[in-house]
Amino acid sequence: MLFCSARIHRLECVDISVLKTGGGCRRNCSVDSCSEVIDEGDYLGDAFRTEVHKTYLSDEWSSYIHNVGDKFHGAAELREKLRKYAIALGFKFVFLRNDLDRIHAVCANVGTEGCDWHLRAFSSSSNGCLYITELNNTHTCKGVVRTQKHKLLGSKVVKTCIAADVSFNLSLKPREIMSKFKSTYGFDISYKVALKAKHRAKEAIYGSDADTFSKLSWYKEAVLQSNPGSSFVLEVEPSSNRFQRLFVAYGGADSVCNWKEWESR
């Protein structure tokens, strides 16, 4: 009980006084304190040992929002870092204003518990960056609890964390993303979020399918202009105009084939 009490109160050493009575005589004996620092784990066993805190890449998210005057290179960066900040601390927020040049966010519990947390940021006309102009970074609600799952931890946030992995390995599976995200960032994400985040990451790296398809017309003109005699056949579904197949035969390649055919005669 003594060691349990000391652990609860986070005491590093304890003074013990022994009161001895006998033969009508009372004598006070004091044991020297701090003569030896004792690890309570040696007495309480492995079940009571303090667990070593594991470091995650998400630990730095809690430092993304500091003070009035913080600078962000556009609204997109502020939104991303604000989401990660809320996830790391364990609270939710809502946007009252969410424009390219102005952002106003308040705690999600402002209506139910009257929480005072809020943030305002405005864009500077000189450089286009957003600066925090007003910040109450103290929550008066009871909803600030960090958990392994968070409503704001969607595909937009996860995309920024896995883009490098997707670029290195396009065959990365959603369940592999889920497992690595848990071990690296310390949060649980669903299969759906992992799948959508991978799709978003591919679009950010290579562009969307629609953007790529729209460039085929430009590519056709460039091929026919730079390689006279080339063949370029693009087939699509008549009803939906969806891509089916593409055949390209460069004029230079045809000339080489014809020359080799003539040489062999």
From TrEMBL:
Domain Transposase MuDR plant: 67-127
InterPro entries in UniProt: Transposase_MuDR (IPR004332)
One Pfam family cited in the UniProt record for this chain: DBD_Tnp_Mut
Name of the featured protein: Putative transposase, MuDR, plant
Organism: Rosa chinensis (China rose)
